[in-house]
Every structure is written in C-alpha cells, then in structure tokens.
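Follow-up to my earlier ticket, as requested here are the two runs.
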Amino acid sequence: MAFEFKLQRRVEFSETDAAGIVHFSQFFRYMESVEHAFIRSLGHSVLWHEPGPPLGFPRVHASCDFTAPLRFEDLVELHLLVREKRSKTLTYEIRFTNLSATPPREAARGRVTVVCVARHPDGTFTATRLPHQLAAKINIAPAELLGPVTEGNEGNKDRAALR
C-alpha cells in the first residue's frame, strides 16, 4: 500500500513574481499536481467515472508554510505523504525541497485535505466514502516520517460530518 510519492520539477519563469521568487499561489498548484500524480501512480484519476454518480475530490483545507524562497530554474522535489485517511477524506502533507540549493533544503511544507464527493445531476454534491479500489491502495505514512502534528498544521477538526 502506498503512503508517499515523490515528484521533481523545475521552476518555470512564469511561476515567479516581480521579486524573482515563486509566487505563493504556485505552491498550491504544485500540491495539486503531486496529488494527481500520486493518484495516477495508483492506476486511478481524481475524476472517478464508475457506475453511479461521478466522484471528485475537492479541497476542504489547504495551507502552506514557507521557509526559503524558490527561484527560476530551481529543481524542486515535491514529497507527498499521506498524513490521515478516513472513510471520506484524505489529508496529504507535501514537503518542498530545493534540490538546487547546497545543501538541499526545505523551502515549504503544505497540507491539503480532500473529501470524496458524488456529483448529482442537479449539480449538488454529497460526501461519500472513498472508492474501495482507491482506499485499498492507500495507507497512512509511518509516524517517523510524519513527525508531530503542531498547532496550525492539524487542519480543521470541525469537518467531522464530511468524514
């Protein structure tokens, strides 16, 4: 069962701001791209078309803490770890490591929680269980890889109804 996924990418010029560093909004795009690559590595897609209503995985929480800038042409490793798995939600932690730095150093750490939803013909959504075919392939990362949960990175605990 999978609990982590790594992806490397180069920072594109269009992803930087007037100061020459990656604009904060790009980190959220990077998190989405590594999440999609992780799901694809398991043989699935975030757009689920099985019998029944189509399923999707919208975000219910996203955060990112920044510790060092990334610049044009830096090589960045995105390391996704599954922090939490519940019946209807997944929480990922994504670590951004600047591999171009000497020595390589963490540039940011993000957190994303997604909820599995069924999309109905009338446009409404209902939280639903993760598809068994996907859930069976995903495990929570070992505690020694995750480290402790600290204030500000535990996500919103008021989402019990979605789990």
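Run two:
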Amino acid sequence: MSEITYDEYMVRPLGFDHIFPDPRLAPAEGLLAYGGDLNPNRILKAYRMGIFPWYSENDPILWWSPDPRLILIPNKLKVSKSFRRLLKNSSYKVCFDKDFSSVIKACATTPRFGQDGTWLIDEMQEAYITLHNMGFAHSVEVYMDDKLVGGLYGIAMGRVFFGESMFSHKANGSKIALKALSDVLSQKGYDFVDCQVVTEHLVNMGAEIISRDEFLNRLEKSLETGGDIGSWRDFKWEYKDG
C-alpha cells in the first residue's frame, strides 16, 4: 500500500509487524496509520500507545489518536437529582461480563441519531470477543425484568478502562451502566476512563477534555501497575446514595 498525504503528515500503512507511528506526531484529527489486521496483540499494543481502530465496512482498518482527548475520572461522574431518584427506585440489575457478545452486538445494531450503519462490523466484533475471552475486554450489562436494556464495553489494562461503545434500549440504560462502571473502577483505584473523542453528552456528565500529550503522559503512568485481567463476573455493584 502507498502512503496517504494528510495535512502534510504521511499516514503510514501497517505491515505484519505491530509497530505504530508515534501518536504525538499525528495531526489533531488523529489518523496516523491504516491497514494491518485486528490481531489481538496488535490491538493491545495500539491501546497501550493511546491508539484505537475505527473504520467502516469496505474501508481499510484506520488507526486513530485524536487531539484533544476525553477522559472521565471514575469518582467525578456527575449524577443529577432526577438520575439519583431513578437509581434508587428503578427495578434493574447490573452485571459484569455476563453476556459480552450480546452487549457488543447491541452496540452495533442499536440505531443512533445522525448515524447510518455502524463501525462495529463483524470482524471488529469478533476481535473484541477474542479480547474478552483473553480477559482484556469487559462488558457491563443492565437488566430489567431479566431483559438486557443497556450496557457498555471496553478494554482494561493497568489502571485504565478504554471505553469503546454503549447502548440503551430503555431510557438511561447506558447511564446506569456507566455509573456502575465508574463506581467499581473508583473502588479499585483506576485512574481514568478513556472516552476517546469529545462528546457533549459525556462532558455534561463530568468527562474532561485534555490534550493528547497530557493523555499519553497519564496513560504511560497508569499502565505501570498491573490490571484486572480475567473475568469480571464476580464484580458486584448496587447503588448507594451519597
């Protein structure tokens, strides 16, 4: 493959090795490489460098590290009064890693305002299911009347949770999942959740916009400690007011 000129930055084609360009040198939009494959070791290497895959069907695999970056400190999630009432009164149950494949499928198939189709094509789903089986990718499920109504998934390494996608089939389903995840990560000493790109919704919930350089500095430090590799099925969460 030939290189692509992008704002005077040469976007590198990836080969069989798992070597990525330095993300600090990528343009602000974040595209720094294309091609390669979704080998789990390549994906894990990418996350350790602050890079993630994001592309559409029939496109080459595109690898990104945007500037700025959005992160959520687990204990800084904002909870409104109305959401507190919902958390206290709703009949829901939250589980971890109970049904990862259903969560990622729901993330791929749930219609989203302003979006046509999904970036979570079959090969992406298969790659993250493999990472789940390896103990790196995890899901949070929200059930009401034994029906899956919301959830999210991502990858955990060191003291960072790399959030990938979430869905709701009932109002606030994904917000409940995010609240549960934030509480558990806070209890376990995680430093932050990588939200990847800036969205108004997450900013309103307490996520912080930081520069890519600051993100990469924090990431490097947070990866120095061991993580929770393996199943998270034993993780428990119940809402406690206050």
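The only thing I checked on run two: Residues 1-8 have pLDDT under 50 and may be disordered. Let me know what else you need.
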